[in-house]
Structure formats: C-alpha cells, structure tokens
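Most newcomers find our protein records easier to grasp once they have seen one. The structure tokens are whole numbers drawn from a learned vocabulary of backbone shapes. The record below serves as our worked example for the rest of this section.
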Amino acid sequence: MRMSLSDTWALAFPVRQATNRFAQILPGLSLCLALAGLSYVIAAWPVLNRVVPLSALTVGILVGVVLRLCVALPAQVEPGIRWTLHYLLRAGIVLLGFRVVAQDMLSVGIGGLTLVAVAVGSTIVLAVALGRVLELPDTLSVLVGCGTGICGASAVVAVDGVIRAREQDVACAIAMVTVFGTIAMFVYPAIAPLIGLSEPMYSAWAGSSIHEVAQAVAAGFAFDETAGVHASLYKLSRVALLVPVCAVLALWWRQRAAASGESDRAAPFPLFVVLFVIVVGINSLASMPAPLHTGLLRFDAALLAAAMVAMGLQTRLSSVIGLGWRPLALGLAVAIWISVVALIGAVLIG
C-alpha cells in the first residue's frame, strides 16, 4: 500500500518538530553540562576541600550565578537552560530514590523516626510562622524550612516543583541552606567532645539536623567511622520525608490558592514525586548489581549538578540581594532551631 503525500508529511512533521526543538535546547544544555563538569573539578580540588568542602551541586549553582553576573549570555542558550532546569532537575530528583532504602530508614528505630519527624515538621512550621513575622513571602519561607529540615538544595528544588516559587526565592533558599549547613558541618565535630556526646547521640544529632546529605555524612565521619554510617541513616530518613511533605504542601497550596482566588495558579501534585516513591520501592525490594547501582547514583549526581548550574544561570543576583537581611535571619533561626531540637532528642534516645 503506497502512502500519500499528506500521510508522509503527517509522519515527518513530528520528527521535524522534535529536531527543531532539540536544536533550540542544545546550546543551553551543552553549556549546563560543561559547567557541571567544571563544578566537579572545582569540588574535587584538594585545596578547596581542606578549607571548605562543597558538593558539586553547591559549586554548580555558584558557577552559574557568577557566570550570569559577569558575562552577557547569548539569547540562544536561554531555551536550553530553562529545559535543563525543568527536566533534568526532575529526573535527578526521581533517581535520588536510589539513595534511599526503606530498611535503612527503619533501622534508626521508633525513637529515631520520631526525632526526625518532629525535627523536620517543627522546622517547616517555624519557618513559615517566622517568615510571616519577618514579612517574607510564604514561598521563600517554605523553601528555607524544607531545605533546612529535609535535605538541603535537593529539597528546595523538589518543593519548588509543588509551590512554584520565584527564581530569587529558590536561589536565596539554596544559599541559606548551603551557608548554615556548611557551618554546622564544621561546628558539630568541634563541640561534640565539649558537651560529652556519645557516638549514638552525636550520630542522631548530626543526621537529624545538618542540612545537606554530604554535609551530614562528612560531619559524622569527622567524629568516627561508626558515626558516619549512623548519621547517614538518620539523614536518609529525613530524605524519605520529602514525599509526605510534598503531598501535604500540594494540598495546602491548593487550598491557599483557592482561598485567594488564584486556583488557576495552583500547581498539580508533581509526577516526579510519585516516580521518586516508585524508585525508592524498587531500590528497597530489588537487588541490582553494584556497578549498575553506583552508575545510577553518579548519573543522578550529574543530572542534579547540571540542574544546579541552570538554576544559577537563571538567577539574577540583584533580585536575591534585594531581599535584604530577613532571609538570613530566617535561615539562621531555623538552623538553630533544628539543631537544638535534634540535640535534645538525641540525648533523650541516646
């Protein structure tokens, strides 16, 4: 059966459309990937690691912000930057599930899970309440609270998929969790001997309160190897709370939008969070070869690094600076809060 000219055109049109779309995003995507590679090089630099260890994700957003500030980027890269931030970020959050195993999360026990839930929940609630006192937008307060309470920059960008915050809110929240998480990473091992914490107490404290996964693990190993392992288990328990927190925020944000007459702006529950749950289930139930699992984790880290570069490239530093001292006060307050709550809980269960 011979195809007519119209049928041939109908089949060729989607292919041509996809080709044109790829050509549009390629310059910006290539830029983000190249800068992500540079971020890995900088993060692995021994001199920097001795002074202030930073993950490639943190370096990525800094590289993006600096480049945007210093260089006038051509308009051709903008579509690819937006595409990277939207799609690679969500893919990275989904693959983050390969870092979470339900059995490990449960291994901290009922007391540990209660501590984690109280620390995370109270931090987010406090962030919103204090943000309103400081006259900050709820979007920024929620992002700072979730980034501090759950897992740093990854939580900020995941929650942003639910509440659709402004670019400057996202960048500012990431800056807050990076600064105060880094401070905690150095301070915790230094003061732990002074206040007489045992290894179980210290592990629970560090894992339940330090912002980023890498920061919590580094602080744990700075105490000893056992604390490094146990702190990572507490930290992964907090990462697992990303799903219920996003679900609650989605419901709250819909009600909030409806009450303000802006229901058309309410974001639907993000599909990537559902996929994250599925990946956690697969990772918890199925056994995969170690090289494959390691490869997936490295691929995930690369996706998130590229997305962080795109986030930085989308950030106008003047907008962040224009927010003033209030976000800094909010970030400091919630960082102190979760540290104190986690320390009290760690002593009680330790």
Observations:
- The mean pLDDT is 83.
- DSSP finds 17 helices and no strands in the chain.
- Residues 5-43 form the longest helix (39 residues).
